[in-house]
Amino acid sequence: MKDLAVRLAxxxxxxxxxxxxxxxxxxxxxxxxxxxxxxxxxxILSGCAARLADRDRRIQIRVQPDGTSGPGAAGRAELEAATxxxxxLWMSAPAGDATLWLERPGPPGPVDAMVLERAxxxxxxxxxxxxxxxxxxxxxxVELVVDAAAxxxxxxxxxxxxxxxxxxxxxxxxxxxxxxxxxxxxxPDITGRAGVGPAGPPADLPDxxxxxxxxxxxxxxxxDQDPGPRIVHADELGGLALLATTHTEPIPDERALxxxxxxxxxxxxxxxxxxxxxxxxxxxxVLRLHHSTLQDRLAHTLPVLGWDVREPRGRLRLQxxxxxxxxxx
Amino acid sequence: MTIETTQPVGPPPPFxxxxxxxxxxxxxxxxxxxxxxxxxxMREGNAIADLxxxxxxxxxxxxxxxxxxxxxxxxxxxxxxxxxxxxASTPLPAIYHTHGGxxxxxxxxxxxxxxxxxxxxxxxxxxxxxxxxAPEHPHPAPVEDCYAGLVWTAANAAELGIDPxxxxxxxxxxxxGLAAGTALIARDRGGPALFGQMLLCPMIDDRNDTAxxxxxxxxxxxxxxxxxxxxxxxxxxxxxxxxxSPYAAPxxxxxxxxxxxxxxxxxxxxxxxxxxxxYASAIWRAGGRAELHVWPGGxxxxxxxxxxxxVSQDASAARVHWLKRLLGA
Lengths: 329, 329
Known about the structure:
The complex is a heterodimer of chains A (329) and B (329).
Chain A: H1 4-9, H2 13-30, H3 35-46, E1 50-54, E2 59-63, H4 76-83, E3 90-95, E4 98-105, H5 110-129, H6 139-145, H7 152-161, E5 171-175, E6 180-183, E7 194-196, H8 205-217, E8 231-233, H9 240-245, H10 252-263, H11 267-276, H12 280-287, H13 291-305, H14 312-327
Parallel strand pairs in A: 7-8
Antiparallel strand pairs in A: 1-2, 1-4, 3-4, 5-6, 5-7
Chain B: H1 17-26, H2 39-48, H3 53-57, E1 62-69, E2 78-85, E3 92-98, H4 112-121, E4 125-130, H5 141-155, H6 157-160, E5 162-172, H7 174-188, E6 196-200, H8 211-215, H9 224-235, E7 262-267, H10 273-285, E8 290-295, H11 302-305, H12 310-327
Parallel strand pairs in B: 3-4, 3-5, 5-6, 6-7, 7-8
Antiparallel strand pairs in B: 1-2, 2-4
Helix pairs in contact in B: 5-7
Domain PucR C-terminal helix-turn-helix (chain A): 268-323
InterPro entries (chain A): PucR_C-HTH_dom, PucR_C-HTH_sf
Protein name (chain A): Helix-turn-helix domain-containing protein
């Protein structure tokens, strides 16, 4: 058994050893190795403990020259060394916002210098690649990845830089004002209205984005004057989505809704509750009304609207009118 | 057990990323394909890496002794290198070691560092046999030397501080093949009852035509050409023919009943993968006990050449865990 560090030390440091170090980290990068593997490579090739720390991301990785993590068998002094602050005398290199250390005083020899440079660069590219999962992905990349006009290889490259694998399931989200967000896994905190596109591989994000923008048009402010859902999933629109693809003038039923809205402040929320819930009793519960109060209100709407929203057909007509009214805002 | 080469064989399985990176460092110092002309240079190179007696003593943790013991009838004595843990008061289990080196290189100090690590975890006496090497000494000299040393060790267990009921034979690569062959001889001749056999990436099939042998030609460590070189050194023209003894090539044995519990490990990206998997299957088919580990992306001897890699650490741990279970330590 010969340690890789010993093998490297036996080589001409300026040429042979440096090339091996470069090749080592290039291979790791090709296989998209993670931070732990990169830091372990730094420890293995330099023959001393290596650590990577990024305070903002709460990343703290330390690997010993035998490839194991943690303090090792050397006891308490070693444990303190492992958990303590980095010694300012140690050799270090920046890795983006993070820092990579070799736990040995400098100045670095040629092999150490190359290990620091290549491991630092490899760690930085991992950190960049996983930035899509952090709070602030690069907006230019996000716009590129949903751009139907961009060639697919370009979009996939952007997706990779955002941290997405080709097999990941990602959604585009359309926000008010035309902003786009990407959703992979748990949902982000969205305040305000949002249309959520269907999930699919990153290559399909332009389609998800187009559907998300349609879904956004079916959202509402969730106020008395604009009741309805603030977040709409394109997956749940069904045939309603077709309404968004036609450019029609407002139909009489929409004007009827506007007229009705002018007659009472509760009108639109009441009609929305009737349209969105499974029964009048459920609508009354949502509105926090007595069932008979709701019946009275609906009796009032009949002459203003011109149709009975309590009938099945009238309910569909109401749903369509509410949807069209949102589209035509 | 031969896999017909007429069946389609895909590309080689990829190396584990970390092992692939390590190969970049090791590569030029260790060509995949070895030929007979390279044997003298290989022996010289190997001798440089030998552990000294001082290394083996590990600051007094082990007592190092040598014994010349009778070889096979009519043949020279065999040297046993014996490492006894300091301070043992009761008879300990023994690990009887048959070293690796393709049947053509190495000596009884080759690879002992790994066994000493086991002996620290599971207190045991290490007995490592200096068998004669091919091609100067073809089959049956190597395996008969190994068996002769085992017989002497079992007969003189009390003097060595060994519990004769708990002798585990262990070897890697060609040493794994010799360990398996020695276990077959011990069974067939009613020799020492072995407590276990540790066959680490063992070289057991002279036919050299499994899917993995074909797949890995020219790749990694100890490829099909190197394997041809080793087997031809041991068997001469008989290699691959109908008359090869199972003691030389244990994959040839059709009855694997009545053997001690086996631990077999191998990498998925090495020549020996399929013959080793088949050997474990044959033991199970015969009603025997075997534990098989196929480490993904491992090349031949990956754990020795890149001991710090994550997969190497797991492979090493699995061996110690098996020994602990077997020996109840």
